[in-house]
Amino acid sequence: MPEFKTVARVGDIPEGEGRAYEVGGRMVAVFQVNGEYSAILDACPHMGASLASGYVESGGVYCPWHAWKFCVKSGTWLDNPKSKIQQPCYEVRVTGEEIQVAAPEETAPAVP
Ligand code: FES
Q1: Measured from the CB, is residue 62 less than 6 Å from ligand 1?
Q2: Dist. CA 93 → ligand 1 center (Å)
Q3: What is the whole-number distance in angstroms between the Cα of residue 30 and the centre of ligand 1?
Q4: Residue 110 lies in a domain
Q5: What is the model's pLDDT at position 81?
Q6: Which atom of ligand 1 is the closest one to the Cα of 66?
Q7: What's the gap in Å between 69 CA and the centre of ligand 1?
Q8: Tens-of-pLDDT digits for all 112 residues of the chain?
Q9: Which site in 20, 21, 49, 93 is 20 to 30 Å from 10, CA atoms measured?
Q10: Which atom of ligand 1 is nearest to the CA of 44?
Q11: CA of 92: how far to CAs of 10, 15, 40, 100, in Å?
């Protein structure tokens, strides 16, 4: 079972925007679209821009540097969905007022 980390409180991420948080040693972009939260790796696979600061439209985020567009839920590269370019995505849950993101598996602490 993944370990969840609290990154923000409900209301911290405006509708239609993203914010970047450190989770499990990686920067993760957390978005709110239509009242639902989702999370993908923040670093753009092209040249590393922060996707959390990109423009969000129709369920996708435009990279702020060169406008590649990624699905905020699946991480699919929407400019070319058949491409193998895919941003890792992470499970998000809301517990009470806390927005929590599952730590990337490869960096989750080992179970004692
Ligand atoms: S750095 Fe994201 S499209 Fe170039």
Answers
A1: no
A2: 28
A3: 18
A4: no
A5: 82
A6: 3
A7: 9
A8: 789 999 999 999 999 999 999 999 999 999 999 999 999 999 999 999 999 999 999 999 999 999 999 999 999 999 998 898 999 999 999 999 999 999 877 644 445 4
A9: 49
A10: 2
A11: 12, 16, 10, 6
Beta strands in 10-112, from DSSP E residues, in sequence order: 17-23, 26-33, 36-41, 55-57, 60-62, 69-71, 89-90, 92-95, 98-102
Question: In this structure, what CATH number is given to the domain that contains residue 27?
Answer: 2.102.10.10
Look at the chain and report how many structural domains it folds into.
1
pTM of the model: 0.91
**Distance (Å) from CA 72 to ligand 1 centroid:** 15
Q: Is 65 in the pocket of ligand 1 (CB under 6 A)?
A: yes
> Is residue 57 one of the residues assigned to a domain?
yes
Q: Which of 68, 41, 38 is nearest to 54 (CA)?
A: 68
Q: What's the confidence (pLDDT) of residue 108?
A: 44
Closest-CA residue, ligand 1 atom 3, reads 66
